[in-house]
Design goal:
By secondary structure, this protein is mainly β. The protein has 3 helices and 10 strands. It folds into 2 domains: 86 residues, Single Sheet (TSP-1 type 1 repeat), CATH 2.20.100; 108 residues, no CATH class. A hairpin with a 6-residue loop joins β8 and β9. It is elongated. 22% of the residues are buried.
Length: 214
Amino acid sequence: YGPCYCDQACARTLDCCHDYAEACPVIPCVVSQWSVWSGCAEPCKTTYRVRRRHVIQEPRNGGEACPPLEERAGCVEYWTQQGTECKQSLIPALITTGGFGRARQKRAAADGNERTGYCVEFQLVAITPGCLRSHHSYTHWMQYLREGHTVCVECQPPALNSRSLHCYGDGSGSKKNQLLHWQAVGNPLCKGTWKRIRQLDTCSCPSVHSFLFI
């Protein structure tokens, strides 16, 4: 008798009002759709972009809690806010396994498109421990990254910029022995520095040390 207080603990203590289910219905959290992705947090470096959503209905009476309201994703912007192209030495190279490039070349051949590009040799200087903590099947290639080793990174379309005819982060225009930055695609904790050795028409490194600009 009397007013029904909406305290879901009554279900455990067995002292709910007789009309508890009708007076205190379970209402889950309701959120809006995701907003559009923002721009990169900073130009000329690997950072992140953000999208958000807001709460339309707060959960009540033991309803399902609200999901995360913000998501972040990796992002690289190659132009400054003033509209000028970033300096090559400031742009981190985004790399993935060379096997991805071979699959892409097969698709291109099936389409009848000719692919042209070049290869750059680098000496790995520093590597973060995160490269060895990659347990997903698509990140196993990161375990072959070793300090002091020479690696080959291929530049081919669509990463090959049609205007500048180079891949972003390939180190063109950098000074001799200048430390350049790279980051592995698929694991934001795997990154490091390397020194550009030379540019070649084709790669000559073993397959486990052959990579691809993204």
